[in-house]
Amino acid sequence: MQYRRLGASGLQLSALSFGAWVTFGNQVGRGEARELLAAAWDHGINFFDNAETYANGEAERVMGDALADLRLPRDSWCVSSKVYFGAVDRPAPTQRGLSRKHVHDACHEALRRLRVDYLDLFFCHRPDPDTPIAETVWAMDTLVRQGKVLYWGTSEWPAQAIREAHKVARAHHLVAPTMEQPQYNLLHRERVELEYAPLYSELGLGTTIWSPLASGLLTGKYNKGVPVDSRLAQGSYAWLRDALLSDPEAKRVERAQRFTKVAEELGVAPAPLAIAWCLHNPHVSTVMLGATKVAQLLQNLEALDLAERFDDATWSRLEAATS
Length: 323
Ligand SMILES: NC(=O)c1ccc[n+]([C@@H]2O[C@H](COP(=O)([O-])OP(=O)(O)OC[C@H]3O[C@@H](n4cnc5c(N)ncnc54)[C@H](OP(=O)(O)O)[C@@H]3O)[C@@H](O)[C@H]2O)c1
What we know:
This protein is an alpha/beta fold. It has 13 helices and ten strands. The strands form two sheets. Strands 3-4-5-6-7-8-9-10 form an eight-stranded parallel beta barrel. A two-stranded antiparallel ribbon has the order 1-2.
């Protein structure tokens, strides 16, 4: 495993990390979740990602129980949560968003479900148009000063809102956001490569990037339809299937087909190749993986070697094939 600094901070996260979205508390049972976390840990992964909204808190419960059961030294791994969407199906106005109240409550609930005394990373899962940014910055600063959160950040915030949070933090000597959690893969590049480009040097922004396989599209598994046991066949994720497969403009399946053809020509599996391409970007602090099976996770870890093996001409070829 390689370890990378989380932006300008001193925190060293594994270049590949592991998250619980869709899988824990849904597709994957407790025993399998424990096996996945154990396999990740055995291969040097030290960061596990979660959120209040994943399976309405159940993903955090499953992860917390598995981590406690594995008895890994608490100072050797990092865990995150995210606040915004709430942890119930129809949240009351105070059960969602980025108000001081919900940021406070969500942090304490995540600590309880994950069975930890502090969150290493805590993200604002989306911008909240109904809460002043200053209120959220103050709320996060309080949690950091109380020792309940070590690093706080944002997820899918516009660059301008991240700048605004830093401005508030500077003006009041508060703790500023350290990292952003954006989607980044060969089919979705603009925010990380263009919108955030000035922020890496200006603010020392770190990134924990999500969906490196575009929910599995870049494995090639959707090239000829939707396999019955796959993510996009899950009834409750029909919205995701439609978003990824039914947008004629985006042509995602065709782009994934072209990508898998290049992978075949290179003689490598498409999944680790797509992840290796993400690792190749130096502004990516960690690539967050998802998996329903240990075999998938092990295959994806091959990305570390592929990132070293290929040169710029190969990365350009992949970009051309998927553009
Ligand atoms: N901040 C945010 O808004 C946000 C949003 C999304 C995700 N995230 C975080 O990022 C993490 C990773 O995102 P993601 O799960 O969408 O990542 P992803 O790598 O794009 O998709 C993972 C899914 O692809 C399939 N897969 C993975 N490896 C495979 C392989 N080698 N062969 C075949 N299929 C394979 C599996 O689904 P099936 O086996 O079911 O097909 C797996 O669950 C999440 O767990 C979460 O922690 C954050």
